[in-house]
Amino acid sequence: MSKRLFLMLSATLLAFIFSTSLFIGTATAQDAGLESLRETGKAFRSVAKKVSPAVVFIKVEKEVTQQGVAGNPFEGSPFGDEFMRRFFGQPPQQKSPHQTPKRRSSGQGSGFIISADGYIMTNNHVVSDADKISVQLLDGREFDAKIIGTDPPTDVALIKIDAKEELPFLPLGDSDLMEVGDWVLAFGNPFGLSHTLTAGIVSAKGRSGIGLNDFENFIQTDAAINPGNSGGPLVNLDAEVVGMNSAIFSRSGGYMGIGFAIPINMAADIQQQLVQHGGVTRGRLGVLIQDLTKELAESFEIDQRDGILIAQVVEDSAAEKAGLEQGDVILKLDGEKVDKVATFRNQIAMTRPGTEVEFLVLRNSKKKKIKATIGVMDADGDGHPISSDSLPELGMRLQKLTPELATQFGYENVNGVLVTAVDAGSIAASAGIQRGNLIEEVNRNEVKTPGQVKAAIKNSKKKTVLLLVRQGEASRYLALKLEK
């Protein structure tokens, strides 16, 4: 064999071996990828088998007074306004004054059993004011349910069914242990499609300022949540409940990649109080606080941006008795770092009244430890906190328009103060003001904070206050007669 022929055969053999190795390597990588996907699918399948029997389909009925709402496809729903707000990202539409006779109406949602004796957690907006609640299990059994207690400020409700035998139930996990990127599965009954599972990840934690509840600390997820999912469980890969599906961010009413769940640690604390007392008592410190921005830090000659600033100490409050002062910067609560107003507010509210807590504050560039005994938060009949943002003389509550709220309600390019609640039969309700409206002016003066609205009304020398109120893209003037 010639040397040239030998070299040609050797090169051909080497090329064959190399290409075969590449093929084998590629095939091996593909097989490994497919096997990884199969294992993920098996994990989801295992969780579904454990969770689905304890997920329930909730149907509610109530008597409603039909009011015409132009363009509202969910007219007559027992939670129509709440539905519109949570799933369409917009305030309820203006109702016509023409009413039809009362009639029975129905709605639906989800829930999950948390004990063998039939306690079920769900959203308040699913069951509130319902005349009849029925619950259907995966195996087809149906039960009538009764409300044990509700907490509108967090949108948590507890109902119960009675069965002759023990019921399947779900263990509660620790939502504080969840991290961004963790797998989560959402269970529920979207659009009435019973026992549906969707998968995704935790895309953010500690979401607040959404404008759905008084106390917000949402888990954000991209697991698909749709109308009907409300009240269903958000679970981890260990089949433990880490959240309660509550709402989505959407401009159309359908899934757009952002859903919100109430952390189960918050919901479980509420559930325990509802079982023991039938209601919820919250803690109160008695301070008005604000986030410490870079500009505020510079003004107070503080190098860091950690902490929250005390803007005002309420007279005769737990804060005043403890010695907290206006201008103090709260750095830590019971040794834990404080950096967000919403988080701190939730922590104080969830602290039992009478509990002693310790603050690390920065005062005049010096750190100081101060102990305080938490007081009791004043609340209205529905449990909503009575705060400086309430306008009892008009019968509504207000909230500063945050960037998140502006996006949620479509007010990105305007200024004003958001109406978060309107009391039935109040002056505001009689004038047609609704939750989700934006107050742009009071007596022809622009307003941007609840405090400015209160001050303008308080200082008004007339018996009538003139408001410029926006709903969606339209603004109108309303003259409200004060009861002075």
Q: Key features?
A:
Pdz3 Domain, 4 domains, 7-stranded antiparallel beta sheet, Thrombin, subunit H, 27 strands, alpha+beta
Query: How many alpha or pi helices?
Result: 10
The averaged pLDDT comes out at: 82
N/C terminus separation = 117 Å
Q: Work out the number of β strands.
A: 27
Strand content: 35-45%
Please state the overall shape, judged from the principal axes of the Cα atoms.
globular
CATH class of the largest domain reads: Mainly Beta
What low-confidence regions span 5 or more consecutive residues with pLDDT below 50? 67-80, 90-98
Fraction of residues in helix: 10-25%
Largest sheet: 7 strands, antiparallel
Number of domains: 4
The SS-based structural class is alpha+beta
Q: Might you state the CATH topology name of the largest domain?
A: Thrombin, subunit H
**Rg estimate, integer Å:** 28 Å
CATH architecture of the largest domain: Beta Barrel
